[in-house]
Amino acid sequence: MEPITRLGVVGCGLMGSGIAEVAARHGLGVRVAEATPDAVAAGRRRITASLDRGVRRGKLTEEQRDQALARISFTHDLSEMADRQFVVEAVAENRDIKTDVLRALDKAVEDSEAVLATNTSSIPIVDLAVATERPGRVIGMHFFNPVPVQRLVEVIPALITSPATVQRTRDFAELLGKQAIQAPDRSGFVVNALLVPYLLSAVRMVESGAARPDDIDQGMELGCAHPMGPLRLLDLIGLDTAQAVAESMYEEFKEPLYAPPALLRRMVAAGHLGRKNGRGFYIYDA
Ligand code: 3HC
C-alpha cells in the first residue's frame, strides 16, 4: 500500500487542530474541514497559535512553522476529501453528528481505499462503521489532549474492521510519532474506562463539600505525581466533552460511577466549560 501522504481531518476544535498540526509537522499534506467559514478561521488560529508556541519554546524554527502551515489547507466542503488516503473525524462527541459526518465522508471517498477513522472518546465504533458502505475500513483512532504532547493513540477495531485497516492505522500512528495500543470496542475503550470514574469521583467530592478543588488537585499532583489533578484535567478536556463521554459510558454499562454528577451537568448548563471558554472549576485568562 502507498504510504500515507494525504490526510483529511474533519473538525478543527481542540483535538482536530492538534491532529492536523502533528501531521503537518511530520510532513503530511493535511486538508482540514470545518462546518462554517468562522469555524475554519478559528481552527486556523488555533493551529497557528500552537505552532507559534512551539517556536517560542524552541521546539521548531520559524521556517518549520511556516512549512507546517503551508501543508495545511482548509475547506468547509466534505466532498473535497475525495483524494485523501486517510481521514480522521474529530467533530463534537455526539452520535448523530458523527454518524452524519461519516456517511458524508464515505460518499466523498467512495471510489478509493481510504480509511475513515473516528476520534470518538466513547461511542461504539461498530455503530459508526455500519452507518457507512465501507464498515471494514472504519476504525477508532483515539488521541489524547494536548495532541502534540500526549504520545498515546488508542486503536480500536470494531468487530467488522479488516486486519489491513488495523495495520494501516497502527502504521499511521507510528508515522505521527505516536505509540499505539489496541483497545476494545467498548464505551470508554481502555483509558477513559479507567480515567472517567476517577474524574467524576473528584467532582462528587466537590459536590458533597468534602474537599475543595485546589486541595483535591494538589493531592493528586503532589501525592501521586500526576501532571495535573482531576479538576484541572477536566477543565483541560472540557466539561461538555467529559459529560458527553460519561453519558455514553453510562448508557452502555449503567454503572453508577460513570453517571455524570449533577454538579457537572449544572456547570455545563451554565456555560462553565473549562479552559476553552475561560471558566470551569477554575477561572482562566481569556
Ligand atoms: N501544544 C503543544 N505543546 C504543549 C501544549 C500544547 N497545547 N501544552 C503543553 N505543551 C508542552 C509544552 O511546550 C512543554 O514542553 P517543554 O517542557 O518540552 O517545553 C510541555 O508540554 C509542558 O508544558 P507546560 O510547561 O506549559 O505545562 P505543564 O508542565 O503544566 O504541562 C500538560 C501541561 C502537558 C497539559 C500536562 O499538565 C499534562 O500532561 N497534563 C495531563 C494531560 C492529560 O492527562 N491528558 C489526557 C486527557 S484525557 C483525553 O484527552 C481523552 C479524551 O477522550 C477525554
Features:
286 residues, eight-stranded mixed β-sheet, alpha/beta, binds 3-hydroxybutanoyl-coenzyme A, globular, 11 helices
Q: Which structural class matches the secondary elements?
A: alpha/beta
Q: Which molecules are bound besides the chains?
A: 3-hydroxybutanoyl-coenzyme A
**What proportion of the residues is helical, as a percent range?**
40-55%
The total beta strand count reads 8
Q: Largest sheet, order of strands side by side?
A: 3-2-1-4-5-6-7-8
How would a crystallographer describe the biggest sheet?
Answer: 8 strands, mixed
Q: Any idea what the radius of gyration is?
A: 19 Å
Order of helices and strands: EHEHHEEHEHEEHEHHHHH
Instruction: Characterize the overall form.
Output: globular
What low-confidence regions span 5 or more consecutive residues with pLDDT below 50? Answer: none
In round numbers, the mean pLDDT is 96
The fraction of residues assigned to DSSP E strands is 5-15%
| Annotation field: number of helices | 11
**In whole angstroms, how far apart are the ends?**
46 Å
GO molecular function, one term: 3-hydroxybutyryl-CoA dehydrogenase activity
Protein name: 3-hydroxybutyryl-CoA dehydrogenase
Domain 3-hydroxyacyl-CoA dehydrogenase NAD binding: 7-183
Keywords: Oxidoreductase
Explain how this protein is built:
With 286 residues, the protein is α/β, with parallel strands linked by helices. 47% of the residues lie in helices and 13% in strands. It is built from 11 helices and 8 strands. The chain has helices at 14-25, 37-56, 62-70, 95-108, 125-129, 163-175, 191-207, 213-224, 230-237, 239-253, 262-269; strands spanning 6-10, 29-33, 72-75, 86-89, 115-118, 138-143, 152-156, 179-182. Strands 3-2-1-4-5-6-7-8 form an 8-stranded mixed sheet, with helices on both faces. Helix 1 crosses helix 2 and helix 7 crosses helix 9. It is globular. The termini are far apart. Bound molecules: 3-hydroxybutanoyl-coenzyme A. 3-hydroxybutanoyl-coenzyme A binds at residues 50, 57, 121, 144-146, 148-150, 192, 227-228, 233, 237, 245. Residues 50, 57, 121, 144-146, 148-150, 192, 227-228, 233, 237, 245 line the site of 3-hydroxybutanoyl-coenzyme A.
